[in-house]
Amino acid sequence: DSGVTQTPKHLITATGQRVTLRCSPRSGDLSVYWYQQSLDQGLQFLIQYYNGEERAKGNILERFSAQQFPDLHSELNLSSLELGDSALYFCASSSAEDTQYFGPGTRLTVL
Amino acid sequence: QQQVKQSPQSLIVQKGGISIINCAYENTAFDYFPWYQQFPGKGPALLIAIRPDVSEKKEGRFTISFNKSAKQFSLHIMDSQPGDSATYFCAASMHPDKLIFGTGTRLQVFP
User: Fold this and answer.
1) Would you call A103 and B43 a contact, using CB atoms and an 8 Å cutoff?
2) Which of A40, A89, B29, B97 is the most buried (most CB within 10 A)?
């Protein structure tokens, strides 16, 4: 157990819909990273937050957004969902100079 | 420049054998090279990591060999066991930045 929690574990929704994925980092970790894992693209970095502020952006679509709250949990919002958004979404957390520890992921299926 | 190339895509090893997975990178600014292990339905878990100031790091049956001049690094799993059957990802970053992942190697260890 990495200490990073993600909810929900599975999510099934329809095209055009909007969903929210939630992540709680390890106790004391200020950084949260979001990654997308798909069969054709592998593990891709989406976005990083550090202590509530956006720190870095990767291959994140404009339909996707994220935020980190004062209690350090983070949410990834995916809107206008398309079939191609079906993937595993992972959250990872780290302290200032430590490695990234991954959560169990949320499997999103868009029908 | 940001890519990490990983090979082989899949690997079949007999129990007790040595599993070797190779990765190559181009960005010389990378200074942190972790390996992650992922079981089906689980998040990636840190296995072992190395920085470019050392050429080798060993933890139990797992060893990272690092060749800075060739911009290559590899994971060696000694005395491979069926329980090692998983997907292995190499990664690189300008620590503590986002991780750039390789495409993954599916390892199967047969008794």
Assistant:
1) yes
2) A89
Place of tokens 């190499």: B90
**Residue in B34, B44, B98 nearest the CB of A45:** B98
Going by C-alpha positions, the residue among A40, A41, A32 that lies closest to residue A90 is A32
A9-13 long-range contacts, Cβ below 8 Å, gap at least 24? A9/A104, A9/A105, A9/A106, A9/A107, A10/A106, A10/A107, A10/A109, A11/A106, A11/A107, A11/A108, A11/A109, A12/A109, A12/A111, A13/A81, A13/A108, A13/A109, A13/A110, A13/A111
- Beta strand extents in chain A (DSSP E only): 5-7, 10-13, 19-24, 31-38, 42-50, 53-57, 64-68, 74-78, 87-94, 101-102, 106-110
Residue A75's Cβ-count burial label (10 Å; 0-12, 13-18, 19+) is: middle
Six-digit token string for A93: 């957390």
Distance CA B91, CA B34 (A): 5
* B47 has a chain A CB within 8 A of its CB: no
The tokens of B106 are what?
């599916």
User: B-chain residues within 8 Å CB-CB of A44?
Assistant: 101
pLDDT in tens, chain A (111 residues): 889 999 999 999 999 999 999 999 999 999 999 999 998 778 999 999 999 999 999 989 999 999 999 999 999 999 999 999 999 999 999 987 668 999 999 999 999
